[in-house]
């Protein structure tokens, strides 16, 4: 058993047997038995109780649980009290919040999943696929009766088996919310989405421009996104998220993922699903450096070496797997698989996290092993994989033929064997289901350092390449100067968490702007490196030099600006040094004299 900030988590020693995640906000009481069984009874809303026997550190756990639950209860009441002071059940508060938001935003926010609007199920015309779909729903209803339904449903091997078969269309949105934890985020933040939509409407920045550019590239073949209804909903969700999290803002692939979320979830639900994916399930994926995706690709390569050694021996360059699989990770296979097959992958992702994507990737390479071993180059291997994806089908999908992408290629036209997505996912679980979350976490930590070091080295080389064109310093001198510059930045940030350089650090910026120093950091470097640092007025010179370099007055300068002044001090001609000194003695606050004016001043002098 594990207690986090907002949840009580339990898993059997064999994690596949049983697990349960209980939100602390749902807990009503914590009791312990008087016998020697060391049992803890957790009572939750909905007249349900869980009993855990033979609990380790029994007394400490009960005390910690009681403290956490009291704190969560107080926090929940204070949050919900402004909406409905009479409500005691979270479901009541949710209804109040939902009705309020619906009244305020009924003209702007969709309250239905797009799939129910564009593809309502017709019960009068039940074909074989619809009958299978109804049988799936019945299997889930039986599971709900055995394991409960909602946030405190416990999960068993049977739950996983049903997910692998594909979640029924009618339950997909509900179960995505449950498995991802987005249902708890939404319940604890009533009215949040409506407010963010209201505040973000009409905003114009780089993120909104990129969103507008990509809106009609998101599942363009689906009727829902050939209409203003789907496009407007997609715009609102992406813009609201960019407003919520400006550090991420908007990145390509978010539009593809969000469009699928909107098919099966209401607009507000799709927003919280996107929050869960970007901020918890795929951390550091959706930014310009995509560090999280690169780390998981390194993990994928490590798993390939362990499980498919013959493929590793055949490939001369392992980076092939990174280049070909990047879209698999960023879009959860949505960009490479037909939509009716891709949603089954998303089902597994919300249940198992990144483990499902890694397993499926290995299964795909394993299935195509002979073809890949026969390929002579990377281009041939990419072609083989693309043909495979084109022939992945979902024979049980109830989606109409005009929506299914796999149905566009008939069996007569295709000379390749069709592969059913359910069989492929089952095979990935059977062959690679023994991959443990702990191992994935360990590999992520190990490879993250390597990925960051590689990115940092790339950043340095790009900065040096740009700066070397404008200074007389030799490349090895620039390299040493860059190391000193960055070291001073990091050391001062370590000792001062309020450092402006740390606050303004943004890896998504251009290489030159990623690392910037403030006036105090520049003063330290000036004293260390400047040949003029021995003068009596060295602090004044350092300040004036910084102000001269800080042309945009943001109190930060980058490495190019820093190296330019060091270059003049050491390698500049007498005239260039004199011009620099002249500029430094212009009273602060006045406009700087442009270069030509300075030349005239020195001519007259």
TrEMBL record:
Residues 166-353 form the Rab-GAP TBC domain. Residues 537-572 form the EF-hand domain. It holds the Pfam family RabGAP-TBC. GO terms for molecular function: calcium ion binding; GTPase activator activity; small GTPase binding. InterPro entries: EF-hand-dom_pair (IPR011992), EF_hand_dom (IPR002048), PH-like_dom_sf (IPR011993), Rab-GAP-TBC_dom (IPR000195), Rab-GAP_TBC_sf (IPR035969), Rab_GAP_TBC_domain (IPR050302). Involved in vesicular recycling, probably as a RAB11B GTPase-activating protein. Interacts (via domain Rab-GAP TBC) with RAB11B (in GTP-bound form). This is TBC1 domain family member 8B.
């Amino acid at each position: 058993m594990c207690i986090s900030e907002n949840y009580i988590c339990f898993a059997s020693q064999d994690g596949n047997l049983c697990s349960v995640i209980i939100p602390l906000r749902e807990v009503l009481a914590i009791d312990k038995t008087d016998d020697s069984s060391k049992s803890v009874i957790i009572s939750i809303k909905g007249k349900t109780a869980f009993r855990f026997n033979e609990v380790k550190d029994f007394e400490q756990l009960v005390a910690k649980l009681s403290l956490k639950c009291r704190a969560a209860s107080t926090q929940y009441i204070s949050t919900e009290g402004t909406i409905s002071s009479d409500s005691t059940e979270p479901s009541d508060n949710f209804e109040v919040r939902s009705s309020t938001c619906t009244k305020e935003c009924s003209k702007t926010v969709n309250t239905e999943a797009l799939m129910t609007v564009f593809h309502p199920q017709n019960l009068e015309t039940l074909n074989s696929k619809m009958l299978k779909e109804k049988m799936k729903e019945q299997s889930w209803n039986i599971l709900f009766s055995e394991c409960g339904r909602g946030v405190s449903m416990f999960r068993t091997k049977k739950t996983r088996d049903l997910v692998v078969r594909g979640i029924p269309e009618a339950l997909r949105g509900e179960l995505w919310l449950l498995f991802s934890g987005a249902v708890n985020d939404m319940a604890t933040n009533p009215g949040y989405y409506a407010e963010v939509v209201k505040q973000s409407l009409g905003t114009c920045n780089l993120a909104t421009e990129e969103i507008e550019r990509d809106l009609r590239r998101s599942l363009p073949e689906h009727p829902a996104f050939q209409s203003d209804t789907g496009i407007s909903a997609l715009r609102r969700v992406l813009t609201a998220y960019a407003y919520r999290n400006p550090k991420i803002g908007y990145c390509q692939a978010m539009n593809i993922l969000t469009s699928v979320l909107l098919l099966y979830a209401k607009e507000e639900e799709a927003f919280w699903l996107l929050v869960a994916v970007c901020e918890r399930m795929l951390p550091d994926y959706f930014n310009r450096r995509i560090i999280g995706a690169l780390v998981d690709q390194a993990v994928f390569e490590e798993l390939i070496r362990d499980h498919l050694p013959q493929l590793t021996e055949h490939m001369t360059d392992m980076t092939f797997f990174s280049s070909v699989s990047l879209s698999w990770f960023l879009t959860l296979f949505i960009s490479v698989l037909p939509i009716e097959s891709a949603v089954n992958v998303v089902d597994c992702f919300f249940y198992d996290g990144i483990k499902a994507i890694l397993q499926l990737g290995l299964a795909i390479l394993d299935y195509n092993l002979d073809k890949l071993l026969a390929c002579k180059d990377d281009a041939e291997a990419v072609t083989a994989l693309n043909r495979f994806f084109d022939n992945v089908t979902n024979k049980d999908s109830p989606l109409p033929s005009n929506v299914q992408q796999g149905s566009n290629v008939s069996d007569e036209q295709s000379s390749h064997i069709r592969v059913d997505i359910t069989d492929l996912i089952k095979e990935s679980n059977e062959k690679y289901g023994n991959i443990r979350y702990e191992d994935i976490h360990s590999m992520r930590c190990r490879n993250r350092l390597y990925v960051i070091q590689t990115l940092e080295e790339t950043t340095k080389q790009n900065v040096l390449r740009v700066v070397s064109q404008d200074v007389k310093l030799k490349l090895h001198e620039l390299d040493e100067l860059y190391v000193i510059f960055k070291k001073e930045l990091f050391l001062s940030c370590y000792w001062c968490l309020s450092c402006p350089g740390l606050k303004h650090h943004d890896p998504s910026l251009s290489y030159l702007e990623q690392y910037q120093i403030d006036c105090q950091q520049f003063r330290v470097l000036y004293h260390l490196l400047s040949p003029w640092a021995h003068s009596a007025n060295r602090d004044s010179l350092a300040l004036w030099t910084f102000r001269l370099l800080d042309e945009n007055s943001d109190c930060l300068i980058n490495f190019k600006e820093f190296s330019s002044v060091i270059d003049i001090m050491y390698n500049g001609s007498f005239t260039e040094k004199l011009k620099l000194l002249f500029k430094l003695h212009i009273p602060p606050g006045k406009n700087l004299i442009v270069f030509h004016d300075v030349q005239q001043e020195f001519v007259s002098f």
